[in-house]
Model the fold of this input.
Amino acid sequence: MAGKDTVCSLCKNKAVAYLPYAEQRLCNDHFAHSVERRAKRTVREYKMLDGAKHIAVAMSGGKDSQVLLYLLHEIASPMGIRLTAILVDEGIKGYREKVIPEAKSLCKELKVPLKIVTFKRSFKRSLDDIMKLKRKGEGNLRQEASCTYCGVLRRWLLNKATKEIGADRLALGHNLDDMAQSYMMNMLRNEQSLMRLNPVGGDAEAFVMRIRPLFRIPEKEIALYAVLKGFKSTFVECPYVVEGFRPYVRGFINDLESKYPGTKFKLLNSYLSTKDAISVAASKGKRAPNSCGKCGEPTSGKICKCCELIETLK
Ligand code: SF4
Ligand code: ZN
Done:
């Protein structure tokens, strides 16, 4: 991330990172300190831990979730707040099982309990099983992309598992890049689900409160922080990622960012400055969330999206 022959803008040590939007070069220590300071500031500014007693931390085993767990352990544990990591195993061959050992090893090191929930046990089918059905055209399966099934089922499981362990917060590892991409995808598809991106909260009060302490930190900086901290991280890409819309949006935003540094922050700020107006407009005429007639989880209709998708597999 840093150019060659560069020194830290704050001391004379060798720079390891260049933050183009801040025109700053930072050495190991100043960079790590900067990431930690920004995460703490976000937590404080958005009152993410106020009144919290037990936080469920969504773990994927990847670098974002490892950094999230590590930083929350640094910030929340001294405040007497309990942490439990929750990992959703979707059942994607050659992918999730490669990073589960990394999640286990960090949880063990930090002495944070880890709860693993699986699609197979909860829905009787792994994501691979669901996609096989889709390709064969069996069942009443809709032509939904793998990421739609994966995202809806994963959100449902995380919400349920968080309630089961009695946690009052669900921490998610979304970074600046995730936020900018999701915002742009929502705009391009004219979707009404923007409130799901809220740094604090959810899209309905009945959902466990979600917090996103890393939402203002760029993905590259989280990756570098993970390397500097020595977290083990195997890079494996989900085989279904090519089927999604996100890779195109990611490439487009990354191109813009390299030509116009600060684009990702501008997209995030655009979302933050309009989200309340969007939320008021979107909630007009909408009923308060009620319980899904099948599973009891929150929904604005009669049946939640997860149960609707599960129905398509019968
Ligand atoms: Fe799930 Fe899509 Fe992410 Fe793969 S790329 S883990 S299918 S959301
Ligand atoms: Zn349901």
The chain is about 45% helix and 10% strand. The domain at 46-288 is CATH 3.40.50.620 (Rossmann fold). The first strand starts at residue 17 and ends at 19. Residues 292, 294-295, 297, 303-304, 306-307 surround zinc ion (ligand 2) (CB under 6 Å).
